[in-house]
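Incident review: delayed structure delivery

Summary: a single-chain prediction request sat in the queue longer than the usual turnaround. Root cause was a stuck worker, restarted by the on-call engineer. No data loss occurred. The affected request and its eventual output are reproduced below so the record is complete for anyone auditing the incident later.

Affected input:
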Amino acid sequence: MNHLNLNLTWFIIVGVLFTGYVILDGFDLGVGALHLFSKGDHERRLMINSIGPVWDGNEVWLVTGGGATFAAFPEIYASVFSGFYLAFMLLLLSLIFRAVAIEFRSKFKAKWARQFWDISFSISSISSALLIGVSIGNIIWGVEFSKQKILSMSFLDLVNPYSLSTGILTLALFMMHGSIYLVLKNEGELQKKARRWFHYSMVFFSLSFIFVSVITLLYIPHINEHFKENVIWLLLPFTGILAIANIPREIYHGREFGAFLSSCFAIAALTSLVGIGLFPEIIHCSNNPKWTMDIYNSSSSQKTLAIMLNIALIGVPLVLAYTSCIYYVFRGKVKITKDSY
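Output delivered after worker restart:
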């Protein structure tokens, strides 16, 4: 394999892994954000059991995405994970606390204890979604770092107006995605509520999406260059918008699975837009574009990329097979049993 193919291949693999995480754990976090809008212990148990069999498996995609970044682009991994250290630690704590809340809630009978874990589950889900969006926003906007590729921004610098807007957009997207999943997995009164939550979250997402899109087009020129140079790439945002527009149509006609697939496609289109807009860059240097880290100057050696590609050709299909198996086994509507959360 030549130089271009290996670097480009790994750029795509890393993108696919993180896209898979956003799609799969996105509805988990969305369900968590919506959790406190339900009433009564039975409804909240149904919501938790909607994601109960799959939430931990969904996070495998985050781990594999991080591992792939470390293997293929170690300098980017080192710079980002050190520069975003506090943000990533807060994200890690939120994900851990969310897991603890899911597992501990069913272990207590006292009402106050369950309320505590319910609140913990929602807050940790919301904070996780926001932090993921803030991180993505900074990658799109660009960060300051030295010639030695050491990020010179503090945590407060990372929480800027643009990254906050992408954080809110991510939360809105996950809430919409999660509400669709609840409609798909439940029936009765909770399904009716989830349909109402979908309409509110759809409006929330649409307004956030329009705002962030306008700001990105106006103030981040480097993200738009590829779309200006090759108009064929404009098909991607066009099909993404069509997928978003198709979601309420599918919900209206009672085709929840179609709505969920459209939501998944819309998320994949959005992450692809970011990838295409950045390519070949991964981390844009805002203080000196010459120091920008891309898939060529921050990658592992060609031999390492080749060896890791052989491993990925074995590992990625296994992850796909595992995920497919879990979703097939736990298909259908949620029922509360003695073994439920």
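Verification: The mean pLDDT is 87.
Action items: add queue-age alerting; document worker restart procedure.
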